[in-house]
Amino acid sequence: MIKLSTGETLGSYRVRSFLGRGAFAHIYLATDTKNELVALKVGDIAGGGSYMKRFLDVTNDHRPDGISPDETPAEAIRFEKDGAHITFLDASEINSMIRGECELLRHIHHWNIVGVRGMFLHEGRNVLVMDYVRGKTLREKFRALEGVRLNWFLTIVRALQSLNASGDLPYHGDLKPENVLIKPSGGVVVIDPAMRENEQNVITTTPHYNPLLLRNSKADVMGIGVMLYEILTGVLPFDEVPWQYAGREQGGEVQQLSLSYFLSYPPPSDLNPNTPESLETIIYRCLTVMDYGLAALEMDLVEYLRMD
Fold first, then answer.
1. pLDDT-derived band of residue 79, with 50, 70 and 90 as boundaries?
2. Is residue 45 part of a domain?
3. Which of 2, 12, 29, 177 is most exposed, with the fewest beta carbons within 10 Å of its own?
């Protein structure tokens, strides 16, 4: 486990504070040679959501050796002939993933996606240098019982459509409350796309928000549907994730029946009687209609906001 202290130097950057951690890396606030704030993503020595839950303390504060009880860390998913398997990543694999994230994001210049400035090596660990985004995650807003605006999700959908159309980011793949930052101005910035290693057939994603382990834009639609469900009910729609046949070719009757059973969930209105019917319909389409994509979701969100 890597622990950095305030004032410590990494390359040409000076650490100011610990910001948070994911399953595969630690995030630190630092300053560069011009005294500008940046965020440094430092790869860990091993990673995976199950790894974190097994070996870290459960804590409500942010520290390198702890994890909040309501956080949902990502898993490393390896796709093989017999389906998908959750696995741990070692240091070299995490280094490779972070290098891939740098290559994926460094040429993207979009106000709703975190900017990447470059990468360097520190004590054998790849360090990704990103723009520092001041604000709160959706998870933090949930905790504080602050108001959540539906137009934030519309902004995300439109950004993902634009990046998909340009080919710069075909899909995010790991949309969840921890990966959506809300600036004090109300602006939205999405961070930490699913790290993908195509040659190794591995992806990092969070099964509670991507229960079918999809590697296309439908994963993002499902992620938004799960977040909307969570906002309305305070719980997640699917408990036993990922779906047991995720990562296998579809078509068999047993698999189709299994999928129908898996996608059954309590309607939001059963848990929250104040759920608007039209919003419940949007969630249903996000979670269960496989050909319901970003464009259709945008139209439905615009119509709902117009009616609201």
1. very high
2. yes
3. 12
> Residues with Cβ < 8 Å from 289, sequence gap 6 or more?
none
pTM of the complete model: 0.93
| 286 lies in some domain | yes
- What count of other Cβ atoms lies within 10 Å of the Cβ of residue 142? 17
pLDDT band at 146 (very low <50, low <70, confident <90, very high): confident
Give percent of the chain with pLDDT exceeding 90: 77
Residue 14 is part of a domain; what is its CATH number? 1.10.510.10
Q: How many other β-carbons are positioned within 10 Å of the β-carbon of residue 295?
A: 13
Q: Which domain holds residue 125?
A: 9-307
3-state SS, the chain, equals CCCCCCCCEECCEEEEEEEEECCCEEEEEEECCCCCEEEEEEECCEECHHHHHHHCEECCCCCCCEECCCCCCCEEEEEECCEEEEECEEHHHHHHHHHHHHHHHCCCCCCCECCEEEEEEECCEEEEEEECCCCEEHHHHHHCCCCCCHHHHHHHHHHHHHHHHHCCCCCCCCCCHHHEEECCCCCEEECCCCCEECCCCEEEECCCCCCCCCCCHHHHHHHHHHHHHHHHHCCCCCCCCCCCCCCCCCCCHHHHHHHHHHCCCCCHHHHCCCCCHHHHHHHHHHHHCCCCCHHHHHHHHHHHHHHC
Residue 14 within any structural domain of the chain: yes
The domain tally of the chain equals: 1
Has residue 2 been placed in a domain? no
21 CB-side CA count, 13 A: 31
